[in-house]
# Entry
Amino acid sequence: MQPAYAFLAPGQFARGWHIVRFSRELATGELQRLHYFGRDLVLYRGESGRAVVLDAHCPHLGAHLASDGGRLIGDNIACPFHGWTFDPEGRCVDIPYAKRIPERARHALRGWPVLEKDGYIAVWHDPEGNPPEDYLPDIPDWGQAGWGDWHFHRSRIRAQPCDVIENIVDVAHFAHVHGGEVQSFEASFTDRTVTQRSRVRQTAGARRIIPPGLAFDFAASTAEAVAAGSEVTGEATYHGPAIMTYCAESRSELVSFRTWWVNWHTPVNDDEVDLCSAVILASLTDEPLPAEFVELYANTAHAAFGQDVEIWKDKIYQADPILCDGDGPVNKLRRWYEQYYLPLRS
Ligand code: FES
Ligand SMILES: [Fe+2]
# Structure
């Protein structure tokens, strides 16, 4: 039977930018294996500093370009099996034992458009091979004095990208999953963005999910937030199908800071995604932020995602949900998200 949405069709992944690594995870001359969008890929940083993503298997006889640690030559990569050499676009530029490069070899290896900015490395996925779009915004505070590098947590989880993105309009789950009382909530859409503006207060005695395996006392830090009357006002925006930015300011007697988050999910296959939360933060006073506070903040940000994961890993997808008047614009979000997928063939 035909699925209700194109994004539910097996083997289909969203067209758009997807983050795969942070810049500091890839040194010059380093080569890594990736597996995303159901495909084996290689990621490397060439001699010039350029980050490159290519399909992993050589179009000659199928060797993996990272076998034996791979062979980088400048910004190019040579296959370890017979030495065919590819440039960052995936064009075969040398076959050391041939007089002529076969015409078919020139574009046989898929090179993925890569965008490296604000400390992360993103690839453009498009099943039709269209050129990338320019919709990822700059993070204005990135690279400024006092901000530092991303503090991130990444994990491979069982979830569907459509479940992850739906979270942004699901106002009704705050009170049950995140233990917050929603003071105000508004979702707005443009062609390539969905924005949530919300004000949420942590309340005592509220139900909340405590994710397993945390390296800190989540219940205690939540109790502290409740005692301090913590109220979080923020604006979270999805730019395209898989990358969310969030900016917030928090002021109290103890610590005042401004923060940027980048939350992203990148599909591994039909059942799993890599889910990552990353934060940078800086003090709003002359006092620098204590290192322990920064660490705890990054852990708490990740734990908030972990609360959702506990639901995602067991849920099914209701393609025709029964909604009520207190729900957010779930179906509108689904129609917006559908644009990133190849239309279903009837
Ligand atoms: S398999 Fe790569 S050069 Fe032969
Ligand atoms: Fe959530």
